[in-house]
Amino acid sequence: MQTMAIQIQDDYVNDFMSYVNNHSDSITITKDKNLEYDPYFYERQKQLQQDIEDIDNGHAEMLSSEQFDTEMDIFFKDLKSNANI
């Protein structure tokens, strides 16, 4: 068995559901709650897993709140100074 995500044009839903009902012995439809709340759930989950892996293996650095605030202050000061050029 394979699991797939499909997108159906609104005006085709009834035809699609008729097809599914006619082939109900081969097709099962279940709603994925994750996708109801966030259509990009699985893409975001995959990116988060990659980010964690990058941090763990040293390819990315996780900043503390204080480090982040300092870096952002420097960034905005640079933006302001370059805007005045």
Count every beta strand, where a strand is a DSSP E run of 2 or more residues.
0
Global mean pLDDT: 90
User: In terms of structural class, how would the helical and strand content be classed?
Assistant: mainly alpha
Give the CA-based shape.
Answer: elongated
How big a fraction of the residues is strand?
Answer: under 5%
SSE ordering: HHHH
**Alpha carbon gap, first and last residue:** 63 Å
How large is the count of helical segments? 4
Low-confidence stretches: none
Explain what you see.
- The protein has helices at 13-22, 33-37, 41-56, 65-83.
- The chain is mainly alpha-helical.
- The termini are far apart.
- The model has no long low-confidence stretch (mean pLDDT 90).
How is the secondary structure organized here?
Blueprint: H1 13-22, H2 33-37, H3 41-56, H4 65-83
Salient structural properties:
85 residues; mainly alpha; 4 helices; elongated
Summarize the structure.
The chain has 85 residues and is mainly alpha-helical.
